[in-house]
TrEMBL record:
Signal peptide: none
Species assigned in the record: Rhodosorus marinus
Taxonomic superkingdom: Eukaryota
InterPro entries: DNA/RNA_pol_sf, Peptidase_aspartic_dom_sf
Protein name (database record): Peptidase A2 domain-containing protein
Amino acid sequence: AIVDTGASSNWIDHSIFLRTGCRLKRTRVRAGGVDGQPVEVVGEGKIVVRLAKLSFNVNVVVMRKLPAGILLGLDFLRRTEATLDWERGWLTLSLSHRSGRFEVRALGVEAGSEEEEDVQSLIQELDLSESSVAKQDRERLRDLLIEFADVFVGLGKVDGVLHRIKVPEMVEPYCALLRRKAPKELDQERAFVQEWIEKGVLEPCASPWATYNVLVPRRVVVTVSFTGQL
């Protein structure tokens, strides 16, 4: 089985599901691969997963030709309160009655960079060649950015990992359509932000330049105009 932190659901190949003897139900789930490959969804069901002395029920979406056989996603990770230690190669699961630690091997995952990006070097790498502004003005802009580099925050570093997914050429990356977020999603977002602040990943800042995502109360509109400033 593969544990995929980027999958929202748990998946199982149809041929393997038939061997479990579990009931297959109809489903409205529609899915597509991030690599552009079509996904044939057959239905959904519930199976029992056993790891050493641990056993738990898992809701799965059944599909045909799943290379991994069984793919456990975020639903599994949340239910088992799983934690992943990529440096040591451990997966720790916690259930109501017991917990267990299992050795895992990372696929397409590597440790994130622990070095903070230098703002000065990022400004030097800034590509202004496509601008319609005269070359002299572009250089003046670059000098201005370097002179006041202190107003820009660095990209910082996150105690996490990088996931790399190979996709065929000319395949557009998967993205979700824009939509209004539900109150539950907004609450989760606020909780994540607060957690990152407590861990030191984010730092509270009153400057509107601190991030391109500005969190504001509803009915408050924030606009930044650069007209005539460059």
